[in-house]
Amino acid sequence: MRRPRSHQVTMLSAIGYGLGDFYAGGQGALVSTYLSLYWNKFCGLNISFSQTVLGLSAIVSAFVALGFGVLDDNFYRFAIGRRFGRRRLFLFVTVPGIFIGTLLWIPGLSAWAYACAYVLWIALVQIFATAYGALPGEMTADFNERTQLSTARLFTATAASTGIPLLGGVVLSYAGEEKPDGYMWFAMGMTLAFAVAVFLCWKATWEMTPSQAGFSAFEHPDYVPIRVGFSGWARRCRKMLREYASTVKIAEFRKHLVTYVLCMVSQDTFSQLFMFFVIYNWNKTAAFGSLLLSCTIISLPLMPVFARIMVKQGPRKLYALNYSASVIGLIWFALLWATAQYSHTVIWVIFTVAGSLWMLSCKALTNYIPWAVFPYMADIDQIVTMRYRSATFLGAQTFIRQSAGGLCSLLIGGVLSFSGFDATHRVQTQSAHIALGALFLGIYALCVLVGWLASRTLVINRNTDNLVLQEIKRRQEGGVATDIDPQVRHTIEKMTGVAYEQCWQQ
């Protein structure tokens, strides 16, 4: 079932890989745009409860990531992993599991039924994302090919983020916003599309063989599995926690982690609050908000430009470009809020569409950069530990990201509830308007400013990653530590944060 790692990344295989983010990114667009609004209007859930479910589910997802990351990296220890793969097996299992999501959109269920269904849904998304996110490093070690995979992935995610609100807006305009049928059938149709996309992703991708991943001993015919009791599992849990803790010893990963988490929290805030902001602070409809979100399409032709800047200039300059543009976008949205009394005029609508085109391009780039950077973290770690631990890094990264996102959702729900916000009322109190605007614009602005500072210290780029890969190859071929070039030594020490003498050790 696994293809050899020497298989070349082509445009077709990159597109096939990218289809996975039609589910991973598309489900986020569907849920964040419509689910909380749907629950509040048609399922009898208030904003505090719905945001609590979203927040606590994100924290549950964080712990799923923590446990699953190490399991995924070590799945070749088990016969089922050696037979079906340590990454792609979980992609295949995700396909039928996706249909759990239909329960989220059936009106009339109990609050706890929605909560349990969402916990299962978000846990499944996390299991998929952990296995899926590790694939670029398995499919190729080439910087340009990895960038091609990341670009295809983000292109697909952006297309989903564009197409889902656009199609949703059309459906709601036709079916009506004041009854649940349009939301329900649209969401169920998208759930089916997610399952098809993941299946095609599974068919198009490949991964390292056990021997390539460092598990050749487990393929030996004389290998006998060792049974462990409770104490053995306890030792493994402690070892797992040490594995995760060891990731933050890598200096470049710590800097990447700060920028990644802030980027994702800003995305979460935007996605969760944009529709509410449009309806209650701009006095427009959900269909209008959906059509504005479709302005993300402007970023599709920009993806090759993003990739070119990433390859030529590195992530640090791309972050600087994105953050400065995001500040302009936030000011633009604030001005639209201040002039919302003119929202019925053609000029205001034109200004709003232009601002949405600008801001959603920034949002797409905010999502692109950290995922384009992530595959190189495991390279930097490998020169230290001699192991390729991409899923472990992904698990650690996702645990912190989901925990931060969950806490942010709880904060949003608490503040909106305290301010008197009620989605069933067309007109909100002044305090609710202020709270909604402050959360929507303020959290995003804070993430941008802090992330900008953190990104200025990044070292990773195409040249520095090539230095790391060349040094890994030299050491694998028997090269000794004392023969290292001084400039390469300095670069590696700067990215790893440890003395070179401590590198290349189990």
From TrEMBL:
SUPFAM superfamilies: MFS general substrate transporter. One of its GO terms (molecular function) is symporter activity. PANTHER family: MAJOR FACILITATOR SUPERFAMILY (MFS) PROFILE DOMAIN-CONTAINING PROTEIN, MAJOR FACILITATOR SUPERFAMILY DOMAIN-CONTAINING PROTEIN. The keyword Disulfide bond does not apply. Keywords: Membrane, Transmembrane, Transmembrane helix. This is Sodium:galactoside symporter. InterPro entries: MFS_2 (IPR039672), MFS_trans_sf (IPR036259). The chain crosses the membrane at residues 12-35, 47-68, 89-106, 112-134, 154-176, 182-202, 257-280, 286-307, 319-340, 346-378, 399-421, 433-454. It comes from Aeriscardovia aeriphila. One of its GO terms (biological process) is carbohydrate transport. One of its GO terms (cellular component) is plasma membrane.
